[in-house]
Amino acid sequence: MTAITLESAHRAAAAAQSAAAERGITVVVTIVDAGVQPVLIARQDAAPIAAIDASLSKARTTLYFGGAATADLSGATAPGGPLFGFEHAVAAPLAFIGGAVPVRDAQGSIVGAVGVGGGSAEQDHEIATAAAAAIGASA
Q: Does the model's pTM come out above 0.90?
């Protein structure tokens, strides 16, 4: 398994910032390794302060759920959903809203995740996907 390097995390952050600029928004992008430890957190000027915690929580959620994109988990925690209330079962904050995707190496192993906060759930998901692609090519 290949680890996410600081160099590849910087490429991912640049890809995220470019994708955010195309959408006219500012974001925070958090890249974590497979152990859910931050490799890089980048906050664009004027990005919401709350997006710092949101982006890390989203990335953590992706890894806690085996690499599922948070966009795919969003309905599961709604009332009546199979994971309703689950966020209260763990100590670390989780976020069941679009904006995080796994990073996989060439062999398909999960080596980390990218979480994005600052836009809508759909925008954050698209930006995280662009950032992960920038890492995936080298991981």
A: yes
